[in-house]
Design brief:
The complex is a heterodimer of chains A (90) and B (482).
Chain A (H helix, E strand, L loop, with lengths): L4 H10 L6 H18 L40 E2 L2 E2 L6
Antiparallel strand pairs in A: 1-2
Chain B lengths: L9 H9 L5 H19 L2 E4 L1 H16 L11 E5 L26 H8 L3 E6 L19 E2 L2 E5 L5 H8 L5 E6 L5 H6 L3 E4 L19 E6 L2 H11 L26 E5 H5 L3 H16 L3 E5 L7 H16 L19 H9 L4 H13 L9 H21 L2 E5 L15 H5 L6 H6 L3 E9 L2 E9 L4 H15 L8
Parallel strand pairs in B: 2-3, 2-6, 9-10, 9-11
Antiparallel strand pairs in B: 1-3, 4-5, 6-8, 7-8, 7-12, 11-13, 12-13
Helix pairs in contact in B: 2-3, 10-12, 10-13
Classes of the chains: A mainly alpha (90), B alpha/beta (482).
Amino acid sequence: MVVTREEVKHLGWLAKLEMSDAELQRYTAQIEEIISYLNMLDTIPLEQVKPIAMKKKFSELRKDAPENFEDAVLGTRYRKDGFVKGPRMV
Amino acid sequence: MPLPLYTLEAGQVVEGIKNREFSAEEYISQLLGRIEKVEPKVNAFVTLNKEEGLNRARMLDKKIRDGEQSGPLAGVALSIKDNICTKGMKTTCASKMLESYIPAYDATVIKRLMSAGAIIIGKANLDEFAMGSTTEFSRHGPTRNPWDISRVSGGSSGGSAASVAALECTASLGSDTGGSVRCPASFCSVVGLKPTYGLVSRFGLVSYANSLEQIGPVGRTVSDVVSILNVIAGSDENDHTTINSNKPTYSLQERKGLRAGLVMEFTEGADPGVSKMIYNAADTLEKQGCKCEEVSLPSVQYALASYYTIATAEASSNLARYDNIRYGFDMNPEGYEWNSYFAKARSNFGEEAKRRIIVGSYVLSSGYYGKYYLKAHQVRSLLKHEMETLFKRYDVLIGPTMPILPFKIGERIDDPLKMYLVDIDTVVANLTGMPAISVPAGFADGLPVGLQIMADQFAEQTMLDIAYLFEQAAKVQRSSEL
């Protein structure tokens, strides 16, 4: 077996995706098929080939300056004292 | 009786409005009437921009009456794929995760189109976050093929191509990560172009796989696609991957004697009906004075595995940002712990997005980097080298855009790998960063076939020369009966 149900469950947890048992079952079978297909990459002799790499230097990038967007554009209605509310940390 | 205004090409619209043969308001009103009539069958739009569109048209009419400059796309009505940010207009990516997202800014391409006088008539349907080849993975339901509404429109820019084919707009913008402009263009018998990576700014395009995608135009003619490309192409300080050079200008030229390589791996893998049309297309080009020869691109057999590794890897990290806190759907964070809130909210991604997030997380897992991701990039390099070698001998490479004809809605939706395999001919241009265009080649069993033309990086003009030559010679029927 290339991909196990436990692996898919764990990846779902890492990627923060809640999945029902039925979904987990379906995805495991489909992802196993997809990964088996991608496994062909491991069969190609590519030792001599350099991967394509990005040429731009960090210093050439534009300044990462913050921009103020009006508060009204935020979609959420869950707010308190001018802040957006999120779930509790612990 | 004169033809209805909604059948006009972009150039005719601009001229007609400028010369006051008809007003922009009349044109937009006719299009809205057309949309009302055919949209229940096609489902190409996620959001319509009726009032604002009419207002823009009235303002343009006033400008023209006042003798002011009206812009190279004055009055041209565009549908915009709903993953390109439009200020003040919902941009949902056909996902519940962004169902109420209203961008605070325009994408660079939108700014440029608006300053050229174009009018946005609505936001076009797509596969959720542009992940798919049929537009069936949209939460707004599939876009149907205007040539046969029981069949898929292609994807992921299905709404863009179908709205153009169904005469619901003049032209459209889509995005192409693995063929998402060219696939629906082929299935809907319209023209779709993926520019060279770095020619068009991606600023304001909701990211799926940044190293592969480009925004590209869809139109009913090569000329329409050129008009739009001329406006959107060029460097942008907000997208550091755009190439710093003078703004290019493309034209329609009659050029003879170009050399085309027909990629045998593409024709061999295609349905016989599709292959036959492509060989016919090669004959047509030969009759127009081109030299066509069969060529081989051996590494193409690894292209899909490379593409789906890179695309899912980039997708899994791009989609990690959606936490439903600042915008998204209505889900009160009160009472939830951090992890459980995110896992619950993010379970609202659709099937295909979830699958790609997990596959992407898998290939990026510790210990697997060398097995998948690194190898995928090496294949990319290998393919690029093979293509560059071929472009020393040929001006363009040709083949089918899609190896199959548009299939029935629902036919492949439960088999993700089978669905991925239809992208075999299109992903090469994304992996290598090279430009490609799909031009209508005719019909097999009454269904559209697209001819794909690929060129070397930034050789868009040569690619357009062949596309135009073929279009003029082949004279394929342009719009469906709906």
